Recover the amino acids of this structure.
């Protein structure tokens, strides 16, 4: 059994070893939009606007109809007495629902499964997709990467971070395949190719229960194979709340600190009144990688949500982080946590606290000096992937020895 307290250095990294669980950052920088003083003022203006809208509901308002629907031009009144303004039919917009938008995202995610991003990819991995039905009736996009060059000896279930999608981890999945790990991944609700309004999370408890159901399915399809979970940022928080088997976490979203106590007070109320309302951030938020090409690829990807955070989504992040901070001592699985010391999206010291308070007998933490939030998209990505794979392989070898004995 490993014990805590051993300090080591890898390229740009400081490590303390003790057992198997991995955590990495994954909460979007746009969370800060919900927590800034500027947004606090926006909250007050928003409440004022809600009151005005409520009052305006009792006023007689003009109703716009397309000319094709009402052939006679001009202004008049309908039978209810409301003013009717007839305009050309082209001016009246017809919005496509979130179902159509989700279907378009799903079609794009499916097309990407068949695209080879690097030469010789087909000799390393077999990439497939499947739809997973939740207990609520939602359809979630899932995909898998199966080793081709060697037999499968372990499983990794991957959970992406807020506003991104599982396809971003194609390169990492192939690296895992090269060492005999079959990888499964799920786009959680409102993300990637899954159902729901893009970037909108009605409840992170949905993602928690969906992960549990998906994990049960993966284990049923692969009996007797050791399984690990990997999660980034908010994906790491979802895994932690599940208290599942051996885990690896990068930049886990454990603490998000509001800039004013009033934000925490108003968030639950606004999440009920206008859950899909979006606050406008002053900028795109702090950088998540020091690699310009990685940033360009992320924010030009249509499957990555780049809009301002929605009220309910922000509230759900506050809710799950509050839960985790009160329950870190309940973590008792093998754990590896990884975090960049310059991450301004999720708190590195919260990862340190997780490491210290977790009741796992096998736990390790690696703090990478100067690295940012998206560790697997930093210039040192291959070194970080190696740290993860080395940890996975050592636990896999230990499991194999136990089975032989």
């Amino acid at each position: 059994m490993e014990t805590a307290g051993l300090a080591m250095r890898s390229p740009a990294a400081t490590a303390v070893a003790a057992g198997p669980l991995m955590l990495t950052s994954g909460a979007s920088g746009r969370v800060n939009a919900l927590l800034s003083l500027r947004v606090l003022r926006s909250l007050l203006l928003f409440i004022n606007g809600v009151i005005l809208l409520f009052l305006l509901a009792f006023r007689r308002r003009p109703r716009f109809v397309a000319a094709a629907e009402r052939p006679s031009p001009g202004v008049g009144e309908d039978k209810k007495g409301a003013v009717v303004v007839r305009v050309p039919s082209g001016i009246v917009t017809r919005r496509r629902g979130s179902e159509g938008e989700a279907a378009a995202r799903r079609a794009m995610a499916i097309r990407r499964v068949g695209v080879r991003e690097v030469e010789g990819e087909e000799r390393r991995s077999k990439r497939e997709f499947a739809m997973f039905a939740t207990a609520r009736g939602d359809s979630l996009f899932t995909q898998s990467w199966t080793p081709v060059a060697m037999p499968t000896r372990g499983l990794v279930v991957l959970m992406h971070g807020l506003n991104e999608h599982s396809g971003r981890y194609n390169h990492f999945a192939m690296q895992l395949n090269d060492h005999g790990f079959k990888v499964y991944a799920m786009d959680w609700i409102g993300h990637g190719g899954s159902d729901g309004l893009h970037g909108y999370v009605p409840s992170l408890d949905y993602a928690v229960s969906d992960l549990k159901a998906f994990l049960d399915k993966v284990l049923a399809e692969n009996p007797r194979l050791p399984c690990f979970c990997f999660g980034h940022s908010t994906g790491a928080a979802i895994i932690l709340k599940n208290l599942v088997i051996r885990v690896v976490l990068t930049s886990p979203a454990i603490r998000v600190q509001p800039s004013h106590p009033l934000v925490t007070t108003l968030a639950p109320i606004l999440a009920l009144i206008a859950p899909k309302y979006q606050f406008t951030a002053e900028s795109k938020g702090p950088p998540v990688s020091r690699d310009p090409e990685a940033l360009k690829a992320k924010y030009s990807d249509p499957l990555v949500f780049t809009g301002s955070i929605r009220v309910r989504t922000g509230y759900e992040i506050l809710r799950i982080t509050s839960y985790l901070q009160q329950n870190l001592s309940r973590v008792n699985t093998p754990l590896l946590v990884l975090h960049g010391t310059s991450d301004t999206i999720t708190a590195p010291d919260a990862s340190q606290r997780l490491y210290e308070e977790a009741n796992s007998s096998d736990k390790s933490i690696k703090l990478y000096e100067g690295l940012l939030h998206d560790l697997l998209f930093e210039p040192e990505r291959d070194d970080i992937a190696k740290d993860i794979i080395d940890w996975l392989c050592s636990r896999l070898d230990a499991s194999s020895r136990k089975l032989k004995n």
Notes: The CA atoms of residues 114 and 256 lie 38 Å apart.
